[in-house]
Structures are given as structure tokens and as C-alpha cells.
Amino acid sequence: MPLSLRPAPIRYDDSLEHVADDEAETIEDLIETLTGINRTTLEHEKHAYRSVHAKSHGLLTGELIVPDDLPRELAQGIFATPGRWPLAMRLSTVPGDILDDSVSTPRGMAVKIIGVEGERLPGGEGDVTQDFVLVNGPAFKAATAKKFASSLKLVAATTDRAEGAKKALSAVLRGAERVVEAFGGKSSTLLALGGQPETHPLGDTYYTQVPMRFGDYVVKLCIAPRSPNLTRLTDAHVEVNGRPDGLRDAVRDHFAAQGGEWDVRVQFYTDPETMPIEDASVPWPEEKSPYIDVARIVLEPQPSWNAVRRKAIDDGLSFSPWHGIAAHRPLGSVMRARRVAYQVMAKFRAHHNGLQIMEPRNLDDLGPV
């Protein structure tokens, strides 16, 4: 049965992207800044962490379930074939340094689906994975890769410095964000600087924030709590003051006794005027194009974080929107910059941690997680 969308989704075309003349220089600048963050945290922690999303709060395994009754417009890419696929999931917070959780910043979710067939994106020939990299907000904090590179320099200057001051600032920013939200708004700036509400990460909805190809079409994708035990956690307070790893503890406590289910949803590109491809900072209006369910993620009760999982998933895997099939090609300058930057950062971690980072062909490749 065809999907009734008005206006109809715009079909994918290579001409939707517009590459700036200086984009290559911007990417080099971005890599230099990210490498600086890596070197700073390596010196401080004696371990190579990611230059963004360094601290993990949940390292999980489960499966993606694609139904057999999707309309043609939704049966695109990895969602074109009904079935079940194993996956690894990593929950994190955004900064590149390992901070006390009372420095409350946006959260991330990275999902690696394993066993995916199809024409691969450049550099991934022979792999069978599809990654989705998401954050708990509908739009990216910078419009373009160039603006992101500029803002990241400010972040790099504060990496591993004055954690006490960061905690105090975070408390002030959370108060300011509550005022903004009381009037029906949200401030991405306040959230990014440390004003993220101290809520349970399993209750959040996570967004790709930037567009990607969806077979014949273009979408943004989100992963939203589905099962009642997760939806009850939306906006639920988590006490992190005096608990440096309070978010990790909250995720661990949940999965020690119960699992969870999420909906995977897509938002079609339907209006070039209000849904820019190259400006990642603009949320696409949901009243014009609502998110629509395409699949489900199911996780069973399990250990959510331990030394074995840290080695296998935190250190042994890299998550990138460029790990995937051509039908889900990332779009826009922010996504194009991630392609090379994520490769360089993964090589840095692999070298300094003395581990091989590989794309698994099945969950057994991760070892006894």
C-alpha cells in the first residue's frame, strides 16, 4: 500500500549537495583540532579515547527487526528486506574528555547493524555493517563543517581543564535551560555547554540530526523509546551529583533486570525551503513531515558496561555514518567532513591502545560480550 504523504517526498539526486570550494581545507582543520583533543586526553588518561563522545554509559547488544508490511516508500535500503539483524549499541555523552556526569552535556547513541548486504559506501567494500550515529536533539549545533570546526576549537581549549569550574557552570546552565523550556523553547547552545537536564538517557529520543540518502529518497532518522519501561524514563530525573558515573549506573541498573524496545523512524525530505541539506543546524519541521516508524530495536536484559565490553565495543569498534551501504549515503558538509575525520580518529585510538579496530561480520566477532 503506498504511503500517503503530502507533499510527496523529494527523490534523491546528486545535485542536492553543494560542496564549498574550501571544504578540503576545512576538513584538514577539523582533523587537526580533533587530533589535539585526542593527544590531550591521551596524556591525561593514559588511554586513547574518542575525540567526541569519549565517555560511554552503555555498551549493549540486541537486534533490529524490520517488518514485512512496509509501504514501498519506507522499504528502502536496509529496510527493504524484512528480517532480524544483530546490532551493537553505544550510549555516550558528547565531550572528548572523561568528565563527572554532573557536567551535564548532550547524549549520544551509536548503533552498528551487522550482516547488511548491498552496494557499499567508499572505503567499506567487503564490510557488512550499517551504522547510525545519533544525538538527543533534532538538529546539529553547527550549520556547516566550517562552523563546526570553528566551534570545536573552543571546546578543544577547555579539554581536561578545570572540571570543578565545568561542574559549577553546568549547574548554572541547567537552571537557564529550565527557564527557556518553561516558555516552550530549547537552547541548543545552553544544552551543548552543559545545560542538558539531568534525566535518564534511556528515555531520550536520538536523532541523526543531518540528512542521509534513503534509497530513492532523503531522510533524517531517529530512534525513540517504544516499550513502556523506556517511555516512563523520558524526563525522569537521575541523580548525578556526587555520582561521577551516575548515568552509567542508571543504565546498568535498568538492563540488569529488564530489556527495552525502541522505534526506528524516518522523516522524509519534502520541502527544500524549510529542510536544507547543507545547513545541519535547522530542524526539519515535523508538522510538514512527521517521523514515521520503519523498524524496531529490541534489547534483552544484559550487563551494560564492564571491562570485557569496554574492550570489545568501546575500544574495538568505530562508529561512523560512512560505515554502510550506498543507499544510506550521508549528505551535507557535516557528514562529508565526518568521513575522513572518523577514519583518522579511529586509527589514532587503535595505534595508541594497541588494538585492532574492525568491522564485525557477526556478533561473535566481538568476543564473549
- Give the helix proportion (percent range): 25-40%
CATH topology grouping: Catalase HpII,  Chain A, domain 1
Q: H/E element string?
A: HEEEEHHHEEEHHEEHH
Report the CATH superfamily: Catalase core domain
Radius of gyration: 19 Å
Mean pLDDT: 90
| Beta fraction | 15-25%
Which overall shape is indicated by the principal axes computed on the Cα atoms? globular
**Secondary structure tally, helices:** 8
Largest sheet: 9 strands, antiparallel
Q: For this structure, what is the CATH class?
A: Mainly Beta
Which stretches of 5+ consecutive residues score pLDDT under 50?
A: 162-194
Kindly give the count of domains: 1
Show the helix and strand layout:
Blueprint: H1 23-45, E1 55-66, E2 83-93, E3 107-114, E4 129-135, H2 145-157, H3 163-182, H4 188-193, E5 206-207, E6 212-214, E7 217-225, H5 228-231, H6 246-257, E8 260-268, E9 292-299, H7 307-315, H8 333-353
Antiparallel strand pairs: 1-2, 1-9, 2-3, 3-4, 5-7, 6-7, 7-8, 8-9
Helix pairs in contact: 1-2, 1-8
